[in-house]
Amino acid sequence: MSSWSLFSAMQVSASGMSAERIRMNIIASNIANARVTRTPAGGPYRRKQVIFATVLKNQQEREMSLNGVEVAGIFPDPSPFKMIYNPSHPDANPQGFVAMPNVDIAIEMIDMISSTRSYEANVTAFKSAENMIRKALEIGRR
Fold first, then answer.
1. What is the pTM of this model?
2. Tell me: the pLDDT tens digits for 11-20?
């Protein structure tokens, strides 16, 4: 017998909201640092990416159930830095080029919209499960 319940659905939705909140924070950090040419690590800011992973719960030896999503890690984007010609910039190389962060604002905005929509979908699923629990309790009172 499966232990799937409305509370499990709420837990899955809550984990999705938490993961999307972290993703949104990373997107905001990428946008905020889109023009930073000098970091404590040296060089320009490197865009960060969030990787999600499925959380599985082992109910029995052979049965696994979905238990939500989690942030598996936050990794630097390996794409190359953008080189712009600006010989008067303090971080320009001897040829006059400045290494700029590998952040593309358009991509960040698309990711932000995607993250917002995913968060909203999880809120809707959470509220639906909550409403079903409420209705079940009302039926039980009659």
1. 0.83
2. 899 999 999 9
